[in-house]
Write a structure and sequence with these properties.
Blueprint (H helix, E strand, L loop, with lengths): L7 H18 L3 E17 L2 E19 L2 E7 L4 H17 L31 H18 L3 E20 L4 E19 L2 E11 L8 H13 L10 E7 L1 H15 L1 H5 L20 E3 L22 E5 L2 E2 L6 H7 L13 E3 L6 H8 L2 E8 L9 E12 L2 E14 H6 L1 E4 L9 E2 L3 E9 L2
Helix pairs in contact: 1-2, 3-4
């Protein structure tokens, strides 16, 4: 996979030119972002190449302000004529939009002034042949792991490189390159007339840091086979343990509730919760945006504001919200550098590993897969299809499927029992398994 053809200096020059165009066109303020992405994606299924995709994308977004009127336009053509036309369209749109007293660029003193090198770019000369070979080895290891593996949804290899540069009329201009690699495998197994599927994957900024293709395939197969023989449960209430890759989703629902947009629209189940007890007093959540090689690392946010370490939840108490400049103004607050999302959140791990959490659970449900979108961000009501394992006496007894788990997120968070030390680091939210004291489990 070749590196992006345009360098930082090229994109910076285009941005400077676009900002000048905006000023000439009548904009009182403007910002411009350009991204150049290249990628390779390979999927092998049943030993044959099922898909091979090359990606090469360029995109520019222009936001122009005429007073407190805002207009936005985008283009995938970075030629001078296309850029000039895009800028004029953004300014023209701004002239026709309604005034918004909260619209505008960030306050100058919130912009990042130092751009640390976070070591996010590790280009790897991965060819299509290389990707096919890795995916083939991954799938072959999975299919050979157990005779109950009867089919495959494929093994995939993805390699992605990006260069993003952003500037505004306040004088901010910066950017950084990044890379992302992943290998994944999805297997299907059968026993009698029952079929099950499961998966495994590895992701990193560096290709050599990934798990081996064979170990990913074998783990996908093991996870598939252990689900065979699944039963349904009678409807009950019991403790529920979310494995790390699903516990991340619980934290994601919490983040959605404390975003500035949800707060100023009055559409959050954690409305006005800043400074209040949301989790038990042992729970902590910190953000580390400048973690070297972190999958969620960024030296500045989507509008150029500085990103900082933050203790978002301490002793179960919510410190504050996730704010862009606009949402901060709507709430009468200051931006927290979260335009575009969060950056490397760490849930404080507890002392127990997964086995220890099973003992603490004693009798209840381990959730390993969730289905459906039954989460209400306004009320906190939570209802999802699920499958996983039933636990008796602190040990896994048998797999279960075709069940639904339900509760209310505010209550679930407040009655959280434990966080494991089995941390999953494959994303921007890092957490161990999360044990909740009780949920409704609907089955037969």
């Amino acid at each position: 996979m070749s590196a992006p053809a345009l360098a930082y200096a090229d994109l910076a020059a285009l941005i400077e030119g676009a900002l000048k165009e905006a000023r000439v066109a009548g904009a009182t303020a403007a910002d411009v972002g350009i991204s150049v992405d290249t990628g390779l994606a390979v999927t092998v299924r049943l030993g044959e190449v099922e898909s091979l995709e090359y990606q090469r994308d360029r995109a520019m977004g222009v936001t122009a302000y005429v007073g407190q009127r805002k207009g936005t336009a985008t283009t995938g053509d970075l030629s001078p004529a296309a850029i000039a036309d895009t800028v004029k369209k953004a300014v023209s749109i701004a002239r026709f939009t309604a005034e918004d007293p909260c619209a505008g660029l960030p306050d100058a003193d919130t912009l990042a002034t130092e751009i640390p090198d976070l070591d996010l770019s590790h280009p790897w000369a991965l060819t299509a042949e290389d990707g096919i070979e890795v995916a083939t080895r991954c799938e072959a290891a999975a299919r050979a792991e157990d005779t109950r593996i009867t089919n495959s949804e494929g093994a995939s290899v993805n390699a992605h490189q990006a260069l993003r540069v952003f500037g505004n009329s306040l004088g901010f201009l910066a950017g950084f390159p990044s890379t992302y690699y992943s290998v994944s495998c999805v297997m299907m197994g059968a026993e009698g007339d029952q079929q099950e599927r499961d998966y495994w994957y590895s992701a990193s900024r560096e290709w050599p840091a990934l798990e081996s293709a064979e170990s990913i395939g074998r783990e996908a197969a093991r996870r598939t086979v252990r689900r065979l023989g699944a039963r349904r449960l009678a409807t009950t209430r019991a403790p529920v343990l979310f494995v790390p890759e699903l516990a991340r989703g619980l934290i994601g629902h919490f983040l959605g509730a404390i975003r500035g947009g949800a707060q100023y629209r009055r559409s959050s189940f954690l409305l006005d919760a800043a400074g209040t007890q949301v989790f038990p007093d042992f729970f902590g959540l910190t953000e580390r945006p400048h973690l070297p090689k972190g999958l969620g690392s960024a030296p500045f946010d989507g509008e150029g504001c500085v990103t900082r370490d933050r203790e978002l939840v301490a002793k179960g108490v919510l410190d504050g919200y996730l704010l862009s400049s606009y949402s901060a103004r709507k709430l009468g607050l200051r931006t927290t550098g979260h335009a575009g999302g969060v950056h490397n959140l760490f849930v404080a791990p507890g002392d127990e590993d997964f086995t220890g959490l099973l003992r603490k659970l004693r009798r209840g449900l381990v959730v390993t897969e969730l289905m459906g979108q039954g989460v209400n961000g306004v009320t906190g009501d939570y209802s999802r299809g699920a499958s996983g394992f039933w636990v008796e006496g602190g040990e896994i007894a048998y797999p279960v499927n075709e069940i639904t788990i339900a509760g209310n997120l505010r209550t679930m968070f407040r009655n959280l029992v434990a966080v494991g030390r089995d941390v999953d680091a494959r994303g921007s939210i890092r957490t161990g398994s999360i044990l909740l004291d009780e949920m409704t489990i609907a089955g037969e």
